[in-house]
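Input.
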Amino acid sequence: MNKEVIVQDLGLKDYKETWEYQEQLFKDTIDLKIKNRREDAQLSTSNYFLFVEHPHVYTLGKSGDMSNLLVDENQLKEKNATFYKINRGGDITYHGPGQIVGYPILDLDNFFTDIHKYLRFLEEMVILTLQEYGLKPERSKGETGVWLDVGTPFARKICAMGVRASRWVTMHGFALNVNANLGYFDLMIPCGIKDKAVTSLNIELGQQEVSMEEVKEKLLKHFRVLFEAEITK
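Output.
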């Protein structure tokens, strides 16, 4: 079992380019697992954790409803935004500058073979990180991601999640609003949920800007403990 996780920070990168890169890492890992099975070999699979910021983009998961995007192609262009249908679970989501997007491409055979546990661990990583900033983040029953003030009229989502897995290899991941422009969320029904708002860490803290690098370090710290991983940069 290889618990080494290679961390790569891709900076600001186009969504489609990043998606293709994810797909390549994902495919390479699955191909190696198939080779191991066919040849009764034990070659070690690699694990990755990609950090990235995307230019403004909307993505729709396999089970998503196109009507949750509230603007047409021309309006997207006016907002300098793009749109993609993709192969993760979940509905529509937004990515943009000021948001930390994390894509763990893990072979869960190296950790544990339980997708439900995997999602809960990703949520816990974000929850523990936000607690360090004095917030009280929590889960919302039946809804993946991390929220504030669940069960009140002020419930708001701060982190969205959507993953894909095949042969226990994961891709896609989470999007944590740190210094996000929340105006872009008004152009969609986030995750298809009409009665809940979204928020960003800087707004919750009453700050103009929160250090993205500091948040990434905290996320990695909790990821390492939860997954008992060895981090390599």
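The first helix runs from residue 15 to 39.
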